[in-house]
Amino acid sequence: MIRCPTCARQQEPQLLCRDCGAPLALEVDYFAALGFPRRLSLDLRQLEGAYHARGRLLHPDRFASASDAVRDASLKSTALLTRSYRTLRDPISRGRYWLELSGDKLSDDNKGVPLDLAELVFEVQEELAQLRDSGGDSGKLSRELVTAVRERRQTLQELASEAEEELQKNFATWDAGASDSGELKADLKAILSKIAYLRTLIRDVERDLESLESAQGTSSQSTKSF
Amino acid sequence: MSTIFGIDLGTTNSLIAVMDGDGPRVIADPATGNPLLPSVVALAPDGSVEVGSEAIELEPRFNVERNGQICAMGLAGDEYGAVIRSVKRYMGLGGDEIAPEERHRYAFADLSGALVRFQVGKRSYTPPQISAEILRKLKNWAQTATSQKVEKVVITVPAYFNDGQRQATKDAGRLAGLEVVRLVNEPTAASLAYGLHSMASGRVAVYDLGGGTFDISILSIKEGIFEVLATNGDTHLGGDDMDRALVDFILSDLPESLKVERLAWNSARGEAEAAKKRLSSTESTEIVLELPGRTVRKNLTRAEFERMVDGLVDRTLEKCSLALKDASLAASDIDAVVLVGGSTRTPLVRRRVESFFGRSALCSIDPDQVVALGAAVQAGILTGARRDMLLLDVVPLSLGIETMGSVMERLIHRNTTIPTSVKEMFTTAVDNQTHVDIHVLQGERELAQDCRSLARFKLGPIQAQPAGLPRIEVTFLIDANGILNVTARDERTGREHSVDVKPSYGLTDEEIERMLEEALDLGEEDLTQRLLIQARNDAEQILGALSKQLREYGHLLDRAERARIEELAAMLEAQRTGQDREAIAATVDQLNQVTTPFAQRIMDVAIRDAFEKKSVEELS
């Protein structure tokens, strides 16, 4: 229990005083910040609704003429609220955060190549290396290679959304089961690190494709400048 | 709560607005009724300042007199002062960041320093000081027009302004004696002004092309909550660049040395701006630039002009694509497109934006006034007059720190809703290390050197301990103005560390304090004493200039003129050590009047000489 410095009301830790509406600037967890139970499956529309409702009450704009202490509390609470919303809105960061809260960080030993992706990852890296070697020189660049990399992007994106669907489907199962079950956490970690790995790979592919496109773009563009 | 005013501190024009009941209104110049204050500041070596159309009058340029003669007008030559346009482009910039092609435009004090400084005689001015003059003038307008004291303001900034540019804007407010309650992004402010009229829900794209800056913001509006999803832009892209393209075109046949000649350039800029405006309503126009000894005549069609500036519009649309991508939206997902900024009056801009988003754009509110109106609405939100609305803006650029190998480690990603914070744990790398140096960066590139340096600070003193043992938690918090605040706490002792952040570009707190003190000293001094000192300075200056002119150009005067001038000069010489301020001022005025034709003749001769010399050099 905590005590509101403005109206002295005793209450559960939360961002806003239940009685007088003063921002409390407490370090509550992201779920509590938005008033949600600590569960993996969340209704995104409800989450946004809670974020907006609390934002309206907590935002520094509401306390522009308040004391320095209250203004500071409002700023800190709103920062925590937006960070909470941003984290919980995305199923992957939500999953990671949930793991962290249950004392189990997705640690570095999970950053290796997931076994079922190993072959695909090897091929993609190979193609990206060839793409970089050509350095955007259209003479050296085979059309087939670019098309192949574009198709890879497609495949990777599909794999990522499949994994995300699997994650979402399992959230409900995990919420129902005991959160301290070791096997369950291992499953969650495996899917999360797989998605994290795929996202990084997709980003690499997109970056290489973009730099290729911009390299070709600048060579064909006129050199008009302002 | 006292009234909060809304200010649009623009590149070309600045405005001040206020909430009147439920709606905002722009406060016009009480003397002329003009709602726009040109963002032009004239600085004279004696420290006197003119702002707005009075400053434009002083801008060095050529003018055709009624008798057909071409005369140089305004403050000429660096020793006579400077007339600064578009000071916003220099806000938060380091001296080394001034593009080479811009260096001829003004006398810069030091191009290696952490801050741009304009040199005027013996004084130098930073951009926040010059912006403060514009703010001061707006403050006086509003105080005269509303009979209320103007103390608290909301100032708008381009959404894509970085931390340093925002800080510089806040500094300008402080220097003008204003409490800047909030900085609001210009496109977001515009959406507030539109939102008042039609509080519909939906996704809105605000395309804001001003005099010097471009912003695109994508917002989601829902039950009074204006949530920015993504923003992008360029703080050095705007109508000024269209004008410059036109200046290049107008001056294209002149010798190189004349192209950078300040009077010629300023005159061409004026013609360029006028031609650009004419081409918004006509298909072709003739540009005539009168220079001493030559007349430049150019015909320009709208199509030709559009080809000149098409690349500029391309660049804005690329930014639109990036913003849409960050918002995970397609152009077809946008429910409304709003045009903001004077440059959206150019038909090409409008046409291409409409074709990009596939829908016609809204511009029912005057694009020059909509940002100021929105600033007033935000002021209304802050005073509690509009509790039904709330703005959730984002940080435009990622924020991070320099880590091993000079890599930028992102702590807060671009387009994160503000206020936001992130905590980072720091420790020591060697035994008994007492300080940790932290370099804060802003930008999207991988390497620290490619990002913009925001600030450096030292954590400590840390108690001497084995490496890795101290644990200091640093909180990076971006407030609702988009400005970074840093705090640090020792995790074990719970003790707060003081963090002395030294901005990489910009004024330190001490420098601002000093500037404010200087201004205060001046204010608290005995008024008569101050006026006397000023009158003596004026006298000294005019006498000094006069004796030099008489020596070099005495032959331009006839005997009677010379006698009258020398008589007045002797009188002033006698008065200037005395206490009679009014007598000194009166003689200075008389002397000024008597010598005006003389000064005009000198300037004509000097300009003619300069042009003949340059032309000869070019030809040979």
What does this structure look like?
- The complex is a heterodimer of chains A (226) and B (620).
- Chain A has 226 residues and is mostly helical.
- Helix content of chain A is 63%, strand content 2%.
- Chain A contains seven helices and two strands.
- A two-stranded antiparallel ribbon of chain A has the order 1-2.
- In chain A, α5 packs antiparallel against α6.
- The longest helix of chain A is centred in the last third of the chain and has 39 residues.
- Chain A starts with a strand and ends in a 6-residue tail after the last helix.
- The C terminus of chain A is likely disordered.
- Chain B is an alpha+beta fold and 620 residues long.
- In chain B, the strands form eight sheets. In chain B, strands 1, 2, 3, 4, 12 and 13 form a six-stranded mixed β-sheet that branches.
- Chain B is globular and about 85 Å long.
- The termini of chain B are far apart.
- The relative contact order of chain B is 0.11.
Global structural class of chain A: mainly alpha
The helix count of chain A comes to 7
- Placed side by side, the strands forming the largest sheet of chain A appear as 1-2
Report the oligomer: heterodimer
- Average pLDDT score of chain A: 81
Tell me what portion of residues of chain B adopts beta-strand conformation.
25-35%
